[in-house]
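User: Second chain of the day. Same drill as before.
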Amino acid sequence: MRKFLGYTLCTLSLLVIACACSDNLDIKRDYEFEVHHLPVQNKIKKGETAEIRLQLLREGRWDDEKYHMRYFQPQGKGELRTEDGMVFLPNDLYEIPKETFRLYYTSKSEDQQVIDLYFLSDSGQMVTLSFSFNNENDNGEEIEEAKE
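Assistant: Same format as last time:
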């Protein structure tokens, strides 16, 4: 009788443990993220290059999570490139290879210029940054835009 009671308790214990386990593991993949930048100059001459230092800050880590960037230039004309010289095309999606990186914007016009950067995660989150550059003539005076 004692052996029977021992087997029954063991069986009940295993049954409780088996019922407590679940195949539905909830793994969090959509961690919040931010993109920080150091101060960026806001006055630039045609042909001059401004450095934009950026850092991707993640709330949590999911090793397979990838981050991408695209840019638009709604105002002015210029060129955005990476530190290794790759030139970005507007609205194309580019993978961000590391968490700390630099971009270089070269002015190609004498008007005010604005670039918008969109950072996206695989989980669908998005962060935007916008940078505005005013043109500066050779005397160091800011050139104002013509008003209509």
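The CA atoms of residues 48 and 106 lie 6 Å apart.

User: Great, on to the next one.
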